[in-house]
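At this stage, I put together one protein's amino acid sequence and its backbone structure tokens, which the following lines show:
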Amino acid sequence: MDIERLLRDLSVLQEGHFLLNSGLHSKYYFEKFRILENPESASKLCSIIAGQFKDKEFDWVVGPTTGGIIIAFEVARQLKKWAGFAEEREGKRIVGRGFDIRNKNVLIVDDVMTTGKSLLETIGAVKEKGGTVIGVAVLIDRCSVQLPFQYFATYRKPVENFDPRTCPLCKEGVPLNKLGG
């Protein structure tokens, strides 16, 4: 499967000049919801993750809210595992809702890794709840952060972000787009 072609066809991978939620600028933008709204494509991409971890011993698949929930559910469904999520409560990410991951092996998944923050918070939440992280997987990795676990991304495209004050796209006069709202 040509994953980049799929991402472009679904308008997930967009090229231009974008204002990110962080305030930084980028030449590339990943609109993850174009994947998540398309069950057939999401299922295909999740099957790649499932294939990478099918021989690992684990009980649960957990993802951070929001998009990670869908990825966790689909990977867990394909591998016949339990699915859960780590949500933000009072400024902290937790595994709540009665998800019984204590002394269980957990695969952590997410849709797009930009900084690794939500994944690192989810790892912390799983550990705090007594689970053992056996691996981490994402659909799209746009930053190539190193993680201390088996790690897999279905698609990698390291993307440079720019401070608005020194953005070369601004200097070239490329119109700025704010997406994701």
About this structure: The first strand starts at residue 13 and ends at 19.
